[in-house]
Amino acid sequence: MASEENFDTGDAGASQTYPQQCSSLRKNGYVLLKQRPCKIVDMSTSKTGKHGHAKVHLVGLDLFNGKKYEDICPSTHNMEVPNVKRKDYLLIDIDANNYLTLLEDDGAIKDDLNLPTTDIGKEISDKHKSDQALVLTVLSAMGEEQVVSYKLDNNK
């Protein structure tokens, strides 16, 4: 007899990261530094040393809190790269607790994101109060999501 299996917490099998050789990383790309998803803002490669490996010095900014992280890795070694997704949503409402109500393209409602506490959050709030239709861009990586930009919805 086959045993019953529980798939309640399964996902599509997509990993949160994938390996990539350090020498093939590029500025403005993404990398995991100190276990945080970062955008590479600067990188430099040193010459091959007496042990045969050129070293790559990476500087990245955390995608969600803006902190700066640095790391040095041999150019032939693999580093983890986060799977980063961008998605646009139409802003419907902002509730009293600063939770956003967003509309997806397929008509589904997303209501589990907070308004950012940065300047962009204040701009979104001000424009929403003045009844301007906004499209918010949400970045997601490593199980975190955050609104990173917005634009006026010209369809309304």
TrEMBL record:
Keywords: Cytoplasm, Elongation factor, Hypusine, Initiation factor, Protein biosynthesis, RNA-binding. GO terms for biological process: positive regulation of translational elongation; positive regulation of translational termination. Transmembrane segments: none annotated. The keyword Protein biosynthesis applies. eIF-5A seems to be the only eukaryotic protein to have a hypusine residue which is a post-translational modification of a lysine by the addition of a butylamino group. One of its GO terms (cellular component) is cytoplasm. CDD domains: S1_eIF5A (cd04468). PROSITE patterns: IF5A_HYPUSINE (PS00302). Residues 83-151 form the Translation initiation factor 5A C-terminal domain. It comes from the Eukaryota. It is found in: Cytoplasm. Its main location: cytoplasm. One of its GO terms (molecular function) is RNA binding. Gene3D superfamilies: 2.30.30.30, Nucleic acid-binding proteins. NCBIfam families: eIF_5A. Belongs to the eIF-5A family. Translation factor that promotes translation elongation and termination, particularly upon ribosome stalling at specific amino acid sequence contexts. Binds between the exit (E) and peptidyl (P) site of the ribosome and promotes rescue of stalled ribosome: specifically required for efficient translation of polyproline-containing peptides as well as other motifs that stall the ribosome. Acts as ribosome quality control (RQC) cofactor by joining the RQC complex to facilitate peptidyl transfer during CAT tailing step. PANTHER family: TRANSLATION INITIATION FACTOR 5A FAMILY MEMBER. This is Eukaryotic translation initiation factor 5A.
